[in-house]
Amino acid sequence: EAGEAATRAAAAEAEAVEKARAVVASKGAGWKVSPADFERILSAARSSAAGKAEAAEAATAALLDELLAAAGGSLLVRALVPDTKVLRERAIRAGAAAMAAAAAAGKAEATLAALKSVLDAPPSDAAVAERVATGVLSSVSRLAGSLQAASLLRFLGRARALFGGESAAVGMEAALAVSALLRPAICSGVLTEDAEPLSLLRESLAAVKAASSAAEARAAAGGVGAAVGSLGAAAIGAHGVLQALSEALDSKSKEAAHAREAATLSYGALARALRHGFEPYGVPALPKLIKLLADKDKKVADAATVAAEAMIEGLSTLSVKAVVGALYEGMGVVGGGGRVRIECLKLAGMLATQAPGTMGPCLPECIPLVIECLNDSNAKVQTAAEEALPVLCSCVQNAEVASTLRDFIIDALKKPDKTFDCVEEVLMTTFCNPMDGTSLAFMMPIIIRGIKDANYELVKKATVCASNLCALIKDSSDIAPFVPLLLPLLEKNVEHSSPNIREATQTARERLLEGAGDLVDPAKRGTAVGVCVRDSLAAAVPSLPEPVATYLSHTCAALLEERLGGVVRVQNFRHAVPATEQWVSSIVEPYATAEGGALAQVATAAVENFKSQLPEEARAILAKSGDKDFALDMQNIILAFAGRVLLRKADVRFERGHRYGLIGQNGTGKTTLLNRLAAKDINGFPQELRTWYIRHEVLCDDGIDVRTFLKDKSPAKLAGGGDVDDAFVEATLDQVQFPEEYRAAFVNSLSGGWKMRMSVAISIMHEPELLLLDEPTNHLDRESIEWLTKHLLSLTGVTMGIVSHDYDFIDEVCTDVTHYDNGGQLGKPCRFVYY
């Protein structure tokens, strides 16, 4: 997963850089940033992440020298002026590298003075001034630890003056810069904790209560964030920060309006300064912020928007489930100009963008509320809901729902008269992946609406649709939220006047109950793990504040669900212990020091508790896995084709280097599985696994000779590359002992045996880790079968999936047999049994 993420990040980076080069080339002169300038910035920006190669070091040093000489006229500052994200991001990275170089070269004092001069002489354009100031402030922390007290205090004073400025963005960046500068200064002894940070905190908390203007409110909030950010999360409880903010918020005096604004903004400042460290206090406070969105005082409501966005923006994915309840409650608020609903829809969209995998399972409760907002009489609320729908839909992982059906679903959710069209499209769609709760969250409201309709044809189609989807349920917890809504409708329609509807309803009801199985409380496992963590922490760190212990109980349960709740793999459980320990340690560290190994015991206990909560089937898989290395490990998959469910709750677990014979009755989906494996479109298929599929027939246009066909099927050609080396083709054909006289022959003139050798030659060119073969011995004589057998047995480390009715061939080649087991009932979905 980390490798895939790195590959995607590298590809995104390369694409962004190329776009930026094009933009700079077209607008560089007007920006006073030439293409050559951009390359210098790019080189320096890479130095911090690429081990400071010689060229990058030189570029960084040159940018630093220019900053010291020209300050506001330097390239690092000029590159912050254009309102272009890619250029700005690279300039900030280059600036960070230059600051690090300045600290290493003993130039920190001079560099700080240059940066201060840039802040002292801002550009006349307010937007440009904001971009320059925030860019400068975001880089300055790299100088921390290399500054003398006098110069540091001067810069801190300049930054503090920005807290209450006209630009909220500059004020917040200044607060973060002060926090980042104070932390290492305290650690190195340049400043003392009892001096600057604590005095700043006391002054700022007093300023919160005394604020009498918007500027004073912003300044006070910035001071609170900067001080606590430098002191650490433990300062919140030690110095009564939340109590002071609550007192200001609860004030009913008309004169306290700005004090309430300052207190509200302080929550956002703390969230930005501490990030995850503030969540033990910030997550429980979110419902209060949501209520403040409807405050009669617009200043306070605006401040609540800023604070809530700050909290959601930096939220850990492990806290998503803990905050959605407050957002959903806000979506249900009627009146007040619709502001609460609008803001909560935006915040839900932010969560979907930042953490789609965690937000997705929360959507069954969310989508009905979004539909309510679509029907709100306030046009602004309707617009916000319409904008939120596609963002929320991005959480869907089911390929058919996310692509083929996406537009139909969104259209039907917005417009009830499109229900029939959507249901028909669902019925015409071939599903190759299971239905999860996220997908059902979007589809079930439409299906339920169809079942309730007066149009008998729509009722029947929607019922059939419900039946088909229930057959694709992967886990009973996915359908659980919809059973109380769908089952009563089906129970009622069992007695429907239409025999067609009665028949369809009976099937749908049976499949719904089968999919639901023995309904188990989906929160049961998380609750048990949370209790275990709380008990373990009480023994390991008795002094840990209660809000922090509660937070860790929830987030550890979420972490283990995220890492271990899907495919059951031994290595995942091994890795979960250090990952949990690292997470617990990062949260506990500001408050207390645990005895050696105590937090590891907390993590181990949590993982063992999670393991004990697994279903019996999952525990059996875990017990059988041992140290096996699986090239493919996709568990509990569902595979459907042409309206039929072929595989249900099947485990595709192929050990690396093993050769699997897929055995089953005709029509059970053996070839369909190979097609899907080759397409890599089954959820959980490792996309990086090199895969090649040798089909039972070679499809080739007339007039194509063997050499040309191999070139067309070569990796370079299929990837859109250039011509293939003739010597490479000849060497590959030599490997399969392909006769010279046949190499110029047309493909369609070859016998089955020589076509198979040619297909094998193509597979050799692709160097597959997973080789799939469909009826490879069809049309082969005994000599050709013997050659193919010998070749397959010679491949080491290659995993194979082979479909064949030649059981002597299977017996000789395969190390394992995968049996399609449907209990002897023709047409029933199969499971896999391995021998």
Descriptive key words:
single chain; 835 residues; alpha/beta; 6-stranded mixed sheet
Give the uncertain stretches in residue-range form.
none
Oligomeric assembly: single chain
Number of H- or I-type helical stretches: 41
Secondary-structure class: alpha/beta
The CA-CA distance between the termini, in Å, is 30 Å
Provide the β-strand percentage band: 5-15%
Give the biggest sheet. 6 strands, mixed
* Residue-averaged pLDDT: 89
Number of strands: 8
**What Rg, in angstroms, do the CA atoms define?**
32 Å
Shape: globular
Strand order of the largest sheet: 4-5-6-3-7-8
**Relative helix content:** 55-70%
Descriptive notes:
This protein is of the alpha/beta class. The protein is built from 41 helices and eight strands. The protein has a six-stranded mixed β-sheet with strand order 4-5-6-3-7-8, with helices on both faces. α10 runs antiparallel to α11 (214-231), α18 (339-354) packs parallel to α21 (379-393) and α26 runs parallel beside α29. The chain is globular and about 90 Å long. The protein starts with a helix and ends with a strand. 46% of the residues are buried.
